[in-house]
């Protein structure tokens, strides 16, 4: 053993961790220093979350050692890890909507701190904990009455209140919009400057470069290296993650032969619903990609909900190949060959205990009717085909889908819809939680299907990506379609300006 370095808070070395059929971590080292923000990057399934779960006592490692400030560290549970000041905030925040904010922050630890519960004290301590994060809200109100971004801050306040040494954030920003991300970042920086070490996992390169000091790159469960971000060019980082020189992200040839001459597939005329989205017109041609840009909450998803019958329009009409359609429920839309891949994979899609294969054939089976059971052999063929096409990483089609990494789960949902051979596919933030290479694969596949005649509605917060993939872009703001941009005008600045243009309200 070398002499202990006072600067090192955590040293994990030679970590091994196996799941049935998968070597999730193979001899991985990880070092975290005092007062640093350290990112862990890698493709979907690289082992990032698993490394964190070993560190926080969720998973038991099969080998290796962990030293926390020089002392052996082997937490048997997240609770025990927390007692040592190692705290994580997962994307699915484990808080209780029907408790107050203050109760959430102190739930389960009143008596150790105060001897007996004093609500007054809890309230003021909660206020104090949040004030440290520059947030002042009414802590006696129910947690459920606050937006996700605030909930996340509350989860952080809960995590760092105790004598915290390490704060771990695994994909914390995927449902936040830009101002919320900024607020989160300033909180994280403040905590670092106050002496905390932070582990930040995200697929957003911009955010990693903006926030983090160092990065550890994993690939296929192995350590590739540790780097100072300022010294590592982006393309190099990506090629380390992917394991090859990176060229698949290059700009797609814009299909110059305007698809507007093509047959109209779907047309909305003043389609809308009170309190959901203002009436809008929309035309999608065969083989065309229509992008949707706009901030989170601008109404993009609501448009998709109307087109897919999740919400029933109370205004205007919808024509499919010139025939008037009324979608009262998703089933109606599915029968009209529309597929919808929603943004929240947790809420809208996967059945966790079913296998990858069962999840993939689900929509197809539903369309066929429950009585026309697909033979197992056929199911297996279909599953294998899409596992290959989408590069889904799994030991086999019979693996329960809950065992897949987050990004690979996302691909399973996409496969489910592609299997139905839709005329129109709606992708809502398909790239959330998906790594750069998988992103490129998924979009390339979707584009290929468009070349074969499928139409695509593509909703994403990443404007660059919307531009790269779309023939036309509709822009939403305040639940209203405010513009449509095409051709030469399709550029980031123009879209941003349109989104940001003063709408008369407060800025
Ligand atoms: N409970 C489990 N049972 C079986 N295999 C698992 C389990 N959890 C993770 N794995 C496997 O371990 C590997 C690493 O998964 P992990 O969740 O750590 O990836 P990740 O880097 O966090 O990916 P993502 O970016 O998609 O979140 C994957 O191949 C995954 O399928
Ligand atoms: Mg993960």
Give the arrangement of secondary structure elements:
Blueprint: E1 8-19, E2 22-33, E3 37-41, H1 48-55, E4 63-68, E5 71-72, H2 78-83, E6 86-89, H3 101-106, H4 110-114, H5 119-131, H6 148-161, E7 166-170, H7 178-193, E8 197-201, H8 205-211, E9 214-219, E10 222-228, H9 234-242, E11 264-273, E12 277-285, E13 289-293, H10 300-307, E14 315-320, E15 323-325, H11 330-335, E16 338-341, H12 356-368, H13 376-389, H14 406-418, E17 424-428, H15 436-451, E18 455-459, H16 463-469, E19 472-477, E20 480-486, H17 492-500
Parallel strand pairs: 3-8, 3-9, 6-7, 7-8, 13-18, 13-19, 16-17, 17-18
Antiparallel strand pairs: 1-2, 1-4, 4-5, 9-10, 11-12, 11-14, 14-15, 19-20
Helix pairs in contact: 12-13, 12-14
The protein binds adenosine-5'-triphosphate and magnesium ion (MG).
Residues 19, 22, 24, 42, 44-50, 393, 403-408, 435 line the site of adenosine-5'-triphosphate.
Structural features:
507 residues, alpha/beta, 6-stranded mixed sheet, 17 helices, 20 strands, binds adenosine-5'-triphosphate, binds magnesium ion
Radius of gyration: 24 Å
Give the integer mean of the pLDDT values: 85
Q: Strand arrangement, largest sheet? A: 6-7-8-3-9-10
Q: What structural class should be given to the helix and strand makeup?
A: alpha/beta
Strand count, sense and barrel status of the largest sheet are:
6 strands, mixed
């Amino acid at each position: 053993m070398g002499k202990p370095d006072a600067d090192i808070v955590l040293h994990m070395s030679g970590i091994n961790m196996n799941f049935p059929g998968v070597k999730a971590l193979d001899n991985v080292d990880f070092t975290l220093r005092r007062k640093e923000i350290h990112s862990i990057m890698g493709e979907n399934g690289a082992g990032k979350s698993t490394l964190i779960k070993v560190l926080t006592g969720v998973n038991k490692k099969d080998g290796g050692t962990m030293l926390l400030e020089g002392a052996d560290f082997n937490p048997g549970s997240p609770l025990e890890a927390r007692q040592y000041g190692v705290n994580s905030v997962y994307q699915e925040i484990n808080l209780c909507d029907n408790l107050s904010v203050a109760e959430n922050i102190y739930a389960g630890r009143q008596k150790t701190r105060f001897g007996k519960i004093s609500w007054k004290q809890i309230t003021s301590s909660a206020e104090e904990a949040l004030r440290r994060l520059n947030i002042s809200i009414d802590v006696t109100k129910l947690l459920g009455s606050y937006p996700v971004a605030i909930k996340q801050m509350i989860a952080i306040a809960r995590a760092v209140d105790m004598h915290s040494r390490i704060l771990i954030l695994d994909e914390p920003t995927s449902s936040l919009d830009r101002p919320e991300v900024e607020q989160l970042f300033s909180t994280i920086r403040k905590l670092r400057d106050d002496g905390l070490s932070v582990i930040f996992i995200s697929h957003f390169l911009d955010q990693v470069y903006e926030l983090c000091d160092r990065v550890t790159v994993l690939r296929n469960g192995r350590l590739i290296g540790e780097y100072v971000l300022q010294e590592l060019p982006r393309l190099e980082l990506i090629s380390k993650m992917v394991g090859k020189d990176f060229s698949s992200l290059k700009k797609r040839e814009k299909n110059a032969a305007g698809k507007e001459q093509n047959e109209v597939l779907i047309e909305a005329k003043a389609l809308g619903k009170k309190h959901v989205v203002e009436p809008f017109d929309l035309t999608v041609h065969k083989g065309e990609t229509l992008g949707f840009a706009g901030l989170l909450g601008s109404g993009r998803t609501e448009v998709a909900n109307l087109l897919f019958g999740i919400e029933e329009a109370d205004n205007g009409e919808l024509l499919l190949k010139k025939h008037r359609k009324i979608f009262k429920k998703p089933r109606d839309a599915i029968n009209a060959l529309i597929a919808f891949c929603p943004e929240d994979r947790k809420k809208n899609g996967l059945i966790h205990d079913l296998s990858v294969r069962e999840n993939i054939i689900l929509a197809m089976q539903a369309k066929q009717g429950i009585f026309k059971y697909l033979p197992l052999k056929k199911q297996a063929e279909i599953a294998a085909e899409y596992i290959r096409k989408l590069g889904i990483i799994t030991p086999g089609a019979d693996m329960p889908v809950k065992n897949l990494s987050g990004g690979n789960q996302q691909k399973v949902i996409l496969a489910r819809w592609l299997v139905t051979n839709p005329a129109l596919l709606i992708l809502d933030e398909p790239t959330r939680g998906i790594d750069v290479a998988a992103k490129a694969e998924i979009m390339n596949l979707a584009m290929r299907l468009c070349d074969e005649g499928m139409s695509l509605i593509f909703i994403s917060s990443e404007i660059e990506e919307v531009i790269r993939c779309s023939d036309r872009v509709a822009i939403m703001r305040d639940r209203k379609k405010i513009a449509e941009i095409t051709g030469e005008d399709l550029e980031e600045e123009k879209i941003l300006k349109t989104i940001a243009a003063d709408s008369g309200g407060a800025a």
